[in-house]
Amino acid sequence: MFKIFKKPTSYLILILILAFFLRLYKIDNPIADWHSWRQADTAAVSRNFFKYGYNPFIPRYDDMSGVAQLPIPNPNTYRFVEFPIYNSIVYFGYLITGGVDEKIARLVSILFSLGSLVFVYLITKRYFGVKTALIAALLYGILPYNVYFSRVILPEPILVFFSLGMFYFLDLWIRNNKLHLYILAFIFTACAFLTKPTAVFYLMPLVYVYYQKEKKFWPIPKRYFLMFLPAIFPFIGWRVWMLQFPEGIPASNWLYNGNGIRFKPVFWKWIIQDRFGREILGITGTVLFFIGLIKKPRIDQSWVLHLLAFSSLLYLITFATGNVQHDYYQYLIIPALVMITAYGFVNLLEGDRNYIPRLITIPIALLFLFLSIYFTYPEVKGLYQINNPVIVEAGKKADQILPKDAVVIAPYNGDTSFLYQTNRKGWPVVGFPIDVLKNKYGANYYISTTKDSKTNWLMRKYTVMIDTPKYVIVDLTRENPKFDKSKDLEP
Predict the structure, then answer these.
(1) How many Å apart are CA 162 and CA 156, to the nearest integer?
(2) Disulfide: which of 153, 288, 349, 465 matches 473 by Cβ 3.0-4.6 Å?
């Protein structure tokens, strides 16, 4: 029995089991936790595949408000962002289980994250050895930030999986030029770019691998064109196809530097102090990361993973506003962070004649690794919290009593998580006068968790179906005959 645990794969399996069970925490959460708006949009596409029929080329969600590049409504609820690979897999999961269940969607994310963990191990093992690879895999498996974002209903878990697979198989193919490696590299590259073009940041270190292999940058051998051009054709085709549905394309240019924050001191404060030092690695983990980053690889190692870390920095700088505004954007660079952090930890653990004695560095390394988890868990724990349970309660009630084809107005400051709970298409914000939403876009029910001036006015003008201290449901198809239109104007 003890001989089994002398094999690195045995420890990897134990890490995978631990990582799997950690990710089951609150797997039954409704889509009302952190970043629920983006999760709701993603989950709605899979649910609508199940409700209305599967067509990956016409993905639809629930929002009719038209958060698009052009200021126009989206009455057909088109949702054109990443090609719906993740949504399709979740849909097939719904088919197998016989119904829509968000736990299936979260489980799909979990399984892909475990696949990413295996790639983290394999890639780190290739460049830094088995010991560092196991530490990197362990960090990827148990970092609280990574645990949370490995079970969200977002495309990020499969993006990282495909990007790591692309990196791993392209690396091997460049060096060995085998047909089976070409096929695997092609599949992972095509899927990575179809998911999100930010996968390109995983390609940059491979330029160095290419140079090591070919000993020159130019001319580029034909086999590289035969790999990359066909692999990105599906992505180009999808982007061209998207242009036919402009009302379904969310605005994205602001992600680069929409608020002008790039390179300002506050940008580095957000990324290094808040995200790295507070949420992802903790202060001590960040120290280990920088130790690994400045540690020169041994002669039998390579700069490839250091270059992956630097390309991750370039990603942060490129999408400056997106990375400051949305913490899930950093999920893409977690593999590079844990690889370099593990490298820093192992170097500190093993000691070096340039360091203080190992008698001191070993306990420091172990303490820093432990504190990395200890400090970040309280910061991430709140992400699981249901921020407003009332939207779940009101949404379930609306789903029970309203017609299946109802079009609802569920105002929540433009956040679609409330709309998602109703299981109906409609509006997450009152973007037009109520009469316009009714007569032009077919809205026939209004659901609100706040009795503001708009809600109180609608309760006077129309028939109130449900009125509780927590929420109200108003039937917009039945006007109150006693309502005085001339005096009581819409606020």
Answers:
(1) 10
(2) 465
Helix (H, G, I), strand (E, B) or coil at 78: strand
Tell me the three state secondary structure of residue 178: coil
Mean pLDDT of successive 10-residue stretches along the chain, which has 491 residues: 66 96 95 92 97 96 74 87 96 95 97 98 95 96 97 96 97 93 96 96 93 88 90 96 92 87 92 92 94 84 91 95 92 97 92 74 88 92 93 95 94 92 93 88 94 91 93 92 78 77
What values do phi and psi take at 476, rounded to 5?
A: -80, -5
Write out the E strands in 244-306.
Answer: none
Single-letter residue type at 360: I
Distance between CA atoms of residues 272 and 23, nearest Å: 26
DSSP, residue by residue, 256-269 = HHTTS-TTSHHHHI
Q: Which sign does the torsion angle of CA 343, 348, 349, 355 carry?
A: positive
* Distance in angstroms (rounded) separating the CA atoms of residues 23 and 105: 13
Q: Which amino acid is at 243?
A: L
Q: Is 427 within 8 Å of 434 (Cβ atoms)?
A: no
Sign of the CA dihedral with 350 first, then 120, 167, and 289 last: negative
Q: Phi first, then psi: what are they for 448, rounded to 5°?
A: -140, 145
Where residue 231 falls (left for φ over 0; alpha for ψ -120 to 50; beta otherwise) is alpha
User: How far apart, in Å, are the Cα atoms of 302 and each of 73, 138, 158?
Assistant: 52, 22, 27
Mapped onto helix, strand or coil, the DSSP state of residue 427 is strand
Inter-CA distances, 348 with 41, 198, 309, 474, Å = 44, 33, 19, 64
Of the CA atoms within 13 Å of residue 325, those in its CB half-sphere come to 14
**What amino acid occupies position 460?**
R
- Nearest by Cα to 86 from 109, 103, 63, 107: 109
Any idea of the CA torsion for 229, 232, 234, 238, to the nearest 10 degrees? -130
Q: How many CB atoms lie within 10 A of CB 296?
A: 8
SS3 143: coil
